Each structure stands twice: as C-alpha cells, then as structure tokens.
Amino acid sequence: MIEIKRIKAEETYDIRKEVLRKNIDLPHTFAGDMDKDTFHLGLFIDQKIVGVVSFMKSTNKVIKGEQYQLRGMATLNDFQGKGYGKELTLHGIDILKKKQIDDLWCNARVSALDFYKKMGFQIIGKEFEVPKIGGHFVMFLKLS
Ligand SMILES: CC(C)(COP(=O)(O)OP(=O)(O)OC[C@H]1O[C@@H](n2cnc3c(N)ncnc32)[C@H](O)[C@@H]1OP(=O)(O)O)[C@@H](O)C(=O)NCCC(=O)NCCS
Known about the structure:
Blueprint: E1 2-7, H1 9-20, E2 39-45, E3 48-56, E4 67-75, H2 84-98, E5 103-109, H3 113-118, E6 122-130, E7 134-142
Parallel strand pairs: 4-5
Antiparallel strand pairs: 1-2, 2-3, 3-4, 5-7, 6-7
Bound molecules: coenzyme A (COA).
C-alpha cells in the first residue's frame, strides 16, 4: 500500500543522508526544519519510508507574493523513476494551494532539472554552484 503523510523533520534525516549527502560533507539538517510553518512529507510503501520532501516558508527576493521553498527532495535509489517523487511534490502543492501560497521555488540540482520541469517549474536566472554538490538553478512554479 502506498501512503503519503506528514512526518517529523527527524524522519526525513536517514533518506536525506543516504540520497542527498552520501560522501558529501554537508549537514543533513536545514535551518527551517523546525519552523512552525514548515511541513515534511514522507511516501511509504507497506510502511517503509522511501521518499521525503520538505516545504519551508522562505523568501527568494526574485519572487513576489506568498512563497514556499521545496527542500530535501529525495527518493531512495531503488525506488527512483516510479513516480513517487512526483506524487510527493504534487501532494505538497495541494497543501500549499489550500494555504493560498502563490509560488513554490527550489534550488534545483542540474541533474534533477528535468524532474522539476516535468511538473511545470521554470528556471529563473543563471546557473550557480553549491560547494561540494555542484551546479544548481533557482526554479519556481506558480500556484495561483
Ligand atoms: C530527483 C528525484 C527526487 C526524483 O524522484 P523520483 O521518485 O525518481 O521521480 P519520479 O519517478 O516521480 O519522476 C517523475 C518524472 O521525472 C523524471 N525524472 C525523475 N528524476 C529525473 C532526473 N534526475 N532527470 C530527469 N528526469 C527525471 C521521471 O523520469 C518522470 O518522468 P515521466 O513523468 O515522464 O515518467 C530522485 O531521482 C532523487 O532522489 N534523486 C537524487 C537526489 C536529488 O537529486 N534530489 C533533488 C535535489 S534538487
């Protein structure tokens, strides 16, 4: 059975470490993890968590209106390419629309650009480098 539910920040950490921080010496926690407006989602298959994503109220000056940042998007390697990342993101977008949020943005790894593009995210600005990880673009999705 597949289920998406809200989880605590701590429940995202194992997958973040495994998928986003493997051999990368950077923290697996984010400054906004415990903020009151932040929410974290997990996708479970038969009660095993296989994907996580976090949504944080965070302002990017290039974007106007009420906005959230998508962070820590990760599906376990063996479960990638099965639609779970997309389902998690769409679930978050539903929640954000109910909160009347205008835009969702993220710092997208170059290797994941097409994943976000397929959900309608657009690139703003030029590529930038995140030390120890590599090239990124800011991407945003209009929700209103
Ligand atoms: C990027 C990631 C979260 C996508 O999750 P996923 O569960 O594999 O994605 P889905 O299966 O839901 O993919 C949805 C669509 O995007 C495509 N897609 C997924 N990842 C992609 C990638 N890295 N590059 C290009 N296309 C990708 C899928 O083929 C699918 O296309 P379709 O709708 O035409 O079939 C996952 O691959 C991952 O954890 N990667 C490593 C960590 C990472 O890069 N996270 C993002 C940091 S910004």
